[in-house]
Structures are given as C-alpha cells and as structure tokens.
Amino acid sequence: MSDDRKYPPTHTLAQLQTALRTDEAWWGAITAIRAIGDYTVVTFERPRPVKRPITLLPMIGDTAPPAPPGTALVVTGEVNIRPGVIKIAAYRKG
User: Fold this and answer.
1) Tens digit of each residue's pLDDT (9 = 90 or more) over 1-56
2) What is the 3-class SS of 11-78, one letter each residue?
C-alpha cells in the first residue's frame, strides 16, 4: 500500500529532510519524490524502513552525487523548496 504526501515549498532542503525522516516512521519507505506545481509530492510505501534515516543531497546536473560512506541510493527526483525546484538524490545506510 502506498500513500502520497505533499510538502509546501517553504522548506529548505534540511527542513524537508527532517520532515521526511519523521514521516517515514509513520507512512513507510520513500519510493518516489517529485515536484508537482508548488509542492513536493513524496510517495511512501509500507512496510516502514528499518531505522536508517535518509539523507538528501542536491544532484550535480543530472548525476547523483557520490554516496556518503556506508549508504546506497534510494531514489532521485525533484523537490520544490526555497528557493525553487532542484533535483535531489536520497540515500540510506545499507
């Protein structure tokens, strides 16, 4: 079962990361992130992930940045944050 949740464009990337880390505990693992209109829409899929929080990093053009040590790429997408739409990569410890 999956659920979509909307996040307003008033978040910074760090604030969005914090919100997503909190919401994964309730809604399930993140499977998609996309900017739709003025919002960031995130799809969560049950079951919940093991307590390994995600890390959001800005993309380098269309390329995901190198994974932080001990993490793996979960999903890439676009987010609508302050100051606008950016491409991101989400990583989780393996």
Assistant:
1) 899 999 999 999 999 999 999 999 899 999 999 999 999 999 999 987 777 899 99
2) CCHHHHHHHHHHHHHHHCEEEEEEEECCEEEEEEECCCCCCCCEEEEECECCECCCCCCCEEEEEEEE
Q: Centre a 10 Å sphere on the Cβ of residue 2 and count the other Cβ atoms it contains.
A: 12
Q: Is residue 81 classed as helix, strand or coil in its secondary structure?
A: strand
CB-neighbour burial class of residue 33 (10 A; exposed 0-12, middle 13-18, buried 19+): buried
Element of type H or E holding 91: strand 84-93
- Which amino acid, one-letter code, is at 76? T
- Rounded Cα–Cα distance for residues 21 and 23 (Å): 6
